[in-house]
């Protein structure tokens, strides 16, 4: 490469929510302002724009629980500092099953909360439970912590009258809710720019993999050469591609997942409903005629088989809004983010059929979705164990923050704070090594992760 046209202390490749968060915490915690964010798109316009904008602190492993707990704490600080600019709410997550004795699921709760499990998990097996507080308010400051397990039919019916009558257990995770991911990212970008950071619109196409790094960047105005003392790979679905420019490979892949959002004109979904997830697998409710048509086509015959659970539904737009969001991350096929998005035109019908099992009123929309429905998707960049990769890369001076599969918005603050600590050799939390590439040298920990009953993908 020729001589650089400009220089920066830290080059962050990727201006999604993770790249912005890394830059923000470098500014906030370490007073570093010589930062250049590089992205060929507008900030927050690819995967971050497709976020469900939900957050939770329960995971089946205490490392992820601690990590997301920290991120929620940091989001709360931003909410308070900005006058609730990020629209943080806390009605919780309602994880629903028809199993009246979900022993494995309860064990996952205790395992995920670790040493705090005994005080965090509250069982409610009576028709009346004065200690249980339904989530009538969206105020995050007033909500309890921990999780309430409702396993009495009468209590479930009174608390969640809009759920189907066959629901036998509800796990109400309380430190959970929604935020405006776009406002969070915009606040971070404003802070970075005020400290002297800049955004370079362009695509990194080559890197001299030795500090100081020399990055060849294709921009709308032509090719540019940028020199950087340190480099951060926060490239979202292009995480592996940037690693390859450094001569490295990362144990991560992309999976495309879809959602729909539409106006609930029939007022099927209560505006104060928590983010509800139907954990149970099911066979979709096809008519006899539909089953025959699906069976005749090899591309659709699989839709007749039992499908996994994890169907999402939540109100969107606050108490005064009228929209809802539905999602179902059942796809397991690896995707190439360079190609056309593998959007499935059948998905709206599939997710409506699946969601109507828990929310029977949604069945009226099958084949009759309102005008203006939004059908969209995004790439989940993930590791096999569903933990992120945050920390040093193998190349000296290069760092990474990525593979936050479907939980990038909720974990962004903690990911940015942790990456900034690695970059500056600052103090790091106890979970730092477990979320870095070096965890793969810990055979016991990796066996624990890979043999777990569930990896927390919802």
Separate helix tally: 11
What is the succession of H and E elements? EHEEHEHHEEHEEHEEEEHEEHEEHEEEHH
Quaternary form: single chain
Topology, number of strands = 19
CATH class of the largest domain: Alpha Beta
According to CATH, the homologous superfamily of the largest domain is D-Amino Acid Oxidase, subunit A, domain 2
Q: In which order are the strands of the major sheet placed?
A: 5-6-7-4-14-15-16-13-17
Give a brief rundown of this model.
The chain contains 11 helices and 19 strands.
In words, what does this structure look like?
By secondary structure, this protein is of the alpha/beta class. The chain is 26% helix and 24% strand. The protein is built from 11 helices and 19 strands. It has helices at residues 17-30, 62-81, 103-113, 117-120, 153-159, 181-194, 239-245, 288-295, 347-355, 408-424, 443-450; strands spanning 6-13, 35-39, 54-56, 93-97, 121-124, 147-150, 169-173, 176-178, 198-201, 203-208, 213-219, 222-233, 253-263, 275-278, 311-316, 323-328, 374-382, 389-392, 398-402. The two termini are 45 Å apart.
Identify the notable features of this structure and list them briefly.
458 residues; alpha/beta; FAD/NAD(P)-binding domain; D-Amino Acid Oxidase, Chain A, domain 2; 8-stranded mixed beta sheet
Layout of secondary structure:
Elements: E1 6-13, H1 17-30, E2 35-39, E3 54-56, H2 62-81, E4 93-97, H3 103-113, H4 117-120, E5 121-124, E6 147-150, H5 153-159, E7 169-173, E8 176-178, H6 181-194, E9 198-201, E10 203-208, E11 213-219, E12 222-233, H7 239-245, E13 253-263, E14 275-278, H8 288-295, E15 311-316, E16 323-328, H9 347-355, E17 374-382, E18 389-392, E19 398-402, H10 408-424, H11 443-450
Parallel strand pairs: 1-2, 1-12, 2-9, 4-14, 5-6, 12-19
Antiparallel strand pairs: 3-8, 4-7, 6-7, 10-11, 11-12, 13-16, 13-17, 14-15, 15-16, 18-19
């Amino acid at each position: 490469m020729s001589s650089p046209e400009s220089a920066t202390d830290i080059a962050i490749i990727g201006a999604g929510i993770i790249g912005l968060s890394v830059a923000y915490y470098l500014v906030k915690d370490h007073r570093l302002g010589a930062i250049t964010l590089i992205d060929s798109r507008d900030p927050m316009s690819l995967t971050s724009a497709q976020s469900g904008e939900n957050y939770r602190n329960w995971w089946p492993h205490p490392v992820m629980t601690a990590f997301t707990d920290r991120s929620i704490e940091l989001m709360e600080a931003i909410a308070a500092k900005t006058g609730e600019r990020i629209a943080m709410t806390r009605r919780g997550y309602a994880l629903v099953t028809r199993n009246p004795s979900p022993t494995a699921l309860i064990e996952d709760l205790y395992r995920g909360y670790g040493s705090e499990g005994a005080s965090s998990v509250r069982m409610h097996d009576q028709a009346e439970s004065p200690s249980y507080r339904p989530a009538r308010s969206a105020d995050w400051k007033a909500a309890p912590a921990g999780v309430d397990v409702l396993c009495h039919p009468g209590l479930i019916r009174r608390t969640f009258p809009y759920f189907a009558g066959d629901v036998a257990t509800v796990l109400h995770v309380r430190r959970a809710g929604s935020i405006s991911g776009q406002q969070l990212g915009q606040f971070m970008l404003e802070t970075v720019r005020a400290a002297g950071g800049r955004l370079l619109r362009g695509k990194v196409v080559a890197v001299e993999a030795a500090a100081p790094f020399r990055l060849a960047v294709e921009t709308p105005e032509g090719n540019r050469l940028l020199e950087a003392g340190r480099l951060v790979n926060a490239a979202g679905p292009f995480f592996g591609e940037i690693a390859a420019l450094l001569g490295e490979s990362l144990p991560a892949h992309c999976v495309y997942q879809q959602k729909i959002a539409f106006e609930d004109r029939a007022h099927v979904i209560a505006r104060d409903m928590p983010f509800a997830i139907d954990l149970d697998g099911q066979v979709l409710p096809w008519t006899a005629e539909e089953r025959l048509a699906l069976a005749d086509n090899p591309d659709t015959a699989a839709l007749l088989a039992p499908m996994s659970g994890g169907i999402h539904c939540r109100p969107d737009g606050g108490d005064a809004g009228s929209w809802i969001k539905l999602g179902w991350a059942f796809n397991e096929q690896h995707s190439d983010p360079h190609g056309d998005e593998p959007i499935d035109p059948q998905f709206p019908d599939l997710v409506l059929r699946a969601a109507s099992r828990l929310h029977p009123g949604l069945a009226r929309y099958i084949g009759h979705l309102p005008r203006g429905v939004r059908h969209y998707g995004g790439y989940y960049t993930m590791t096999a164990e569903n933990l992120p990769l945050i920390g040093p890369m193998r190349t000296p001076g290069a760092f990474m923050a990525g593979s936050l599969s479907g939980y990038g918005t909720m974990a962004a603050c903690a990911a940015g704070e942790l990456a900034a600590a690695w970059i500056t050799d600052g103090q790091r939390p106890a979970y730092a090594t477990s979320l870095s590439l070096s965890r793969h040298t810990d055979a016991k920990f990796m066996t624990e992760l890979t043999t777990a009953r569930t990896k927390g993908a919802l």
